[in-house]
Amino acid sequence: MISKERIMEIIGNYDLDNLSIATVCSHSSLQIFDGARKEGLKTIGICVKKPPKFYDAFPKAKPDEFIVVDSYKDIPKIADELVSRNAVIVPHGSFVEYLGYEEFVDLPVPTFGNRSVLEWESDREQERVWLEGAGIHMPRKVKAEDINGPVMVKYHGAKGGKGFFIAKTFEEFKRHVNPDEKYTIQEFITGTRYYFHFFYSPLREEGYQLSEGILEMLSMDRRVESNADEIFRLGSPRELEAAGIHPTYVVTGNVPLVARESLLPLIFELGEKVVEQSLKLFGGMIGPFCLETVVTDDLEIKVFEISARIVAGTNIYLNGSPYSDLVDSNLSTGRRIAQEIKLARSENQLDKILS
Amino acid sequence: MISKERIMEIIGNYDLDNLSIATVCSHSSLQIFDGARKEGLKTIGICVKKPPKFYDAFPKAKPDEFIVVDSYKDIPKIADELVSRNAVIVPHGSFVEYLGYEEFVDLPVPTFGNRSVLEWESDREQERVWLEGAGIHMPRKVKAEDINGPVMVKYHGAKGGKGFFIAKTFEEFKRHVNPDEKYTIQEFITGTRYYFHFFYSPLREEGYQLSEGILEMLSMDRRVESNADEIFRLGSPRELEAAGIHPTYVVTGNVPLVARESLLPLIFELGEKVVEQSLKLFGGMIGPFCLETVVTDDLEIKVFEISARIVAGTNIYLNGSPYSDLVDSNLSTGRRIAQEIKLARSENQLDKILS
Amino acid sequence: MISKERIMEIIGNYDLDNLSIATVCSHSSLQIFDGARKEGLKTIGICVKKPPKFYDAFPKAKPDEFIVVDSYKDIPKIADELVSRNAVIVPHGSFVEYLGYEEFVDLPVPTFGNRSVLEWESDREQERVWLEGAGIHMPRKVKAEDINGPVMVKYHGAKGGKGFFIAKTFEEFKRHVNPDEKYTIQEFITGTRYYFHFFYSPLREEGYQLSEGILEMLSMDRRVESNADEIFRLGSPRELEAAGIHPTYVVTGNVPLVARESLLPLIFELGEKVVEQSLKLFGGMIGPFCLETVVTDDLEIKVFEISARIVAGTNIYLNGSPYSDLVDSNLSTGRRIAQEIKLARSENQLDKILS
Fold this sequence. Notes:
The structure is a homotrimer of 355-residue chains. Chain A contains eleven helices and 14 strands. Chain A is of the alpha+beta class and 355 residues long. Chain A has three domains: 4-112, Rossmann fold; 121-137 and 190-223 and 253-329, ATP-grasp fold, B domain (D-amino Acid Aminotransferase, Chain A, domain 1, 2-Layer Sandwich), CATH 3.30.470; 144-188 and 229-251, Dna Ligase, domain 1 (2-Layer Sandwich), CATH 3.30.1490. In chain A, strands 8, 9, 10, 11, 13 and 14 form a six-stranded antiparallel sheet that branches. A four-stranded parallel sheet of chain A has the order 3-2-1-4. In chain A, strands 6-5-7 form a three-stranded antiparallel sheet, covered by helices on one side. In chain A, helix 2 packs across helix 11. The relative contact order of chain A is 0.17. Chains in contact: A-B, A-C, B-C. Chains A and B meet through strand 8, strand 9, strand 10, helix 9 and strand 12 of A and helix 2, strand 10 and strand 11 of B. Chains A, B, C: It comes from Methanolobus zinderi.
């Protein structure tokens, strides 16, 4: 991983009055560009082959400039170009996925957030060490032969939940599993899914206090999963199995929701614990993160995954959410990132939020 | 129940230029506080042990002051303190539940709305007398031995829908029922649930006219119920029963929605009938109320319950809804309550909206 | 169909400084009236028997004037009255349905959009010629005897999806079908439904370029269908069949959602193809239209229907959506229509958007 010193050296040569925000043209780029512009920052869209035409339909979110690559794998080749434009990269999920983990952590361009989080987040075992170490309740890990109730089986390499499946018995597991792939078996928690969109600021002083900095919760969503969300129209999973039709869990979009207000203390506690543990383990997870949870009928919250950067569920709230409206008007997560970068700049603390 | 005369006597000693809005720190308090502040009123949060930290993350909704109690049951002990701060209580569902019905109706602090509504709303039989007397279509009551199609069985004491269950036959009913608890059996209506958020103003003159005052419909939501909303991913209710897994109906949050515009005449008619009947029966249900309904595929609306105060589903619309936007900008139900209190104050008609 | 020449002759006598927007009091009229008023245009509500009272509850959307008819079939009788008020009709789905296809296309009142689209859209065969000719992927048509997997059976005359049903085998089909009605059998696509709300402007120059004019995508929704969306609470379709309970697909409302940003290029491509083909086939589909789709777990989008005018799903976004917010503030589809009419007026190009 590129060292903090090297990044700060690069930033040392930046014309800070002309910072620009760069990201890959996908995932949550509309709000990242729109938010940066609202905060008066320039924007750069990184795209493959040619600028995507759809930005023309969203003038407020069209980046000021595009940098074209042949393939996202070539982003390292434009590092100098990005640096020459005083760019800060805002990495979203697709950015890291398209570029590749190794290439991302080495990229010699200042990047919003702490890149060290990746090694804790990208491996399910490490993630569990982090979250359970923080005192978070996760679905139990289950050994195949111990299955005696519903479990969710997740393949490590699976893109977007396509190979995931639910089993209720060992027999059912054996019938479905592809033994050639690495998988994890988790207890299936019955309840309703909530994805909480937090923001950790090491810089702001007013707000929900942590040991260092403050915690915000800007919005929440539920993912829309294809085909699992609507397949019940055809039949129950067992009935469909006979017909060779299987539920899949590929995210196609997001719906807005709010949680019972009485859950807010618990929700914030979860966010707080995760950040505090991240400070201990690897110097802190900076900026936006998402806890992916199930709320049970006992009103317990089980966290089944963490995303340590902006998630696409925040796209619903490009002009504010029922929660962010209580912080600031028209506040998207993308805009909040731009605010944090500006604050760090004005307080000469860019080292605290970039890596 | 404390008399109107006593309440008006208390109000008579208030410094009306320094009214404050008080409620319990839960349920819909964020919008109640945010709305009051937007209308220039002071706010008081009533909390147990210590101020909840989460308000620090929502600066616009953080109350100006907290009053701490050891237990919500102790709210009567702070009545004098509330009165000394010229407080008007805005009771939400949790307020009444936490404090207790008897204590709530006797509380010697001016309270928004008509406390008489409680005896009609808190008893399922009385509620049915009120709503059916208003000409509202409710799901039929069914005797256990007459079950010959889907019914919903609701326990009287059940908190948040946990013990509710669906049965399709008498045998299924007998297999599930806990004979030690009081229950109600209602016809199960197939359709889609809509929760309509109304506001009855006895003071405003412009608008949807009732015999006295006007009716507004500010928003609608659908409740998210755990685990019923997602349990189909595991299997059908019958398949899961064998595995000892049962659907439950605990509200964990809310999603926004809108209804077909062609339903609006009927929706308003329902609200109108309920208010008119409340005026006849007990002097009127003042302020926000919610009709909890199922819209069938014949586009009929069956009302299965009424909440005679602000419901948590309005939390989605802290900065306006597709309906309230047509009344006023950034209008939450919480803010609408503050507007009504201000209007009553300026027109010297606080007796019409407080009890 | 009334000729363009005749319409332009009528418009030639209009007092263009006093244009008004007229539509039937249902469907999406609130945003049409609200949007027109925001753009400074007068509004006329066409209603049966008497003005619907519910507008009184939505002052910003109450039309300036009502014209009362005995039945929507009588709208042709008020054509002169509409013309004398310089009215442009904005036809929504209910407008066309209530008035009737034949009467609508002959109505001698200037109408927003191209009325020729109706003959392509109202017949499922023609619709398929149009969409497949544009290179759009639709669910396959299936012959009854070829059913060997899930299909959706749609009756031609069915109002709002009530008679639709799903079958997985020929036997199941035969058991359900009403042989006295005309039906279409389509492959049932498993996935999640998205309804994309586009706007085609032949006049604007800046934006997502088509061969003539530009394309916008202002919002998306998912329809709420009664009772199909909640019937899984009772049991699987097969279990319920025994009890004589059948899923139905009647739209009762809409929920908001957003799609994965990586789908936007494909979504725009679909809109683009449909418009370009409409330009070739019948002079173009002007203004708002909706593609009704299923997004599969391969992230393919299958279009199962098109609506060539404003759809009720846009009612969610009366004050803007996460997409329209990137075009303009507080931009509903209703308001966008009013903007287009004003632009055409100021550029002397009303012939391009009226018929």
